[in-house]
Amino acid sequence: MPEVNVPDFFTPNPKKQQELNTLFNWFNKYWGYLIVFLLLFYFLGGAIVKVDAGERAVIFNLFGGVEKRVLGEGIHFTIPIIQQATVYDVKQITYNFASEDQIKQGKIAGGEIHSLTSDGQKVDVELSVRVKPKPDELWKLHKFIGPKYAVKIIFPKARTTLREVLASYPVEDVYSVKRQEIQNKIQENLQKDLAKKYFIDIEEVLIRNARFSKEFQDAIDRKQQAYQEYLKMEYVIAAEHAKRDSKILQAEGEARAINLRVNALKANPYYIKYRRAQVFGKRAKLIFSENLN
Q1: Four-way CATH pick for 93-212: 3.40.640.10, 3.60.15.10, 3.30.479.30, 3.30.420.10
Q2: Nearest Cα to 155, choosing from 107, 188, 118?
Q3: pLDDT above 90: percentage of residues in the chain
Q4: pTM of the full structure
């Protein structure tokens, strides 16, 4: 039977023991420096604030609250623990009220906005709102509202403003050319409210689509069909009028020509003989001379 060598797990290895002792001695000697280095790394890392292009930062001070200043693009240093920086995106942001499968750009703010017109018709509106915070007043936005200003302010204000504006227009105006006027009114009201109270600029408001009740949509389809029939009938009538006018003009021309001939005959009795000469050709001279005699 062959002899099997079993490893000795209990007898310490002098070489490994020496390496461990060296490591423990080094740590025991320099542990204070290591802790100081880690603390410095932690504090200095928290003290550096990087603000990228299209961003701004505000500072919360542990002793004085939000500082009345805004940090621009670049690298800034703050006091660790005492000062805490919050970075904001101040570029234009588009918030859309529509289903996700209908939106390719911007951020989803919610579904279609359900509203009523002045005559009680239901309208579902897809709305896009382009906004951006006022960079110079960002510290006020941070102090009174906070980073979630879109959810707290923009979304509910957009819904409320749209419903208030639509409530003053009948459904026919929403469907027809007054949609641009309604859109401008929503933007104007939002701008007045958000810019003054909440330090947010409204860059643009777009009504992307409006869906009406089935009954009204059917009425619109019938109206469009009737309008197309009306245009077709107008075309037929215009064509008949054109034909009539053409015949009248032709008749008037012929009558004018006859009058001219009659007047010519009255003024010159020999005009008939001249016309005969034109018709009979070579015999004109003989006919003309016979008539003269």
Answers
A1: 3.30.479.30
A2: 107
A3: 37
A4: 0.61
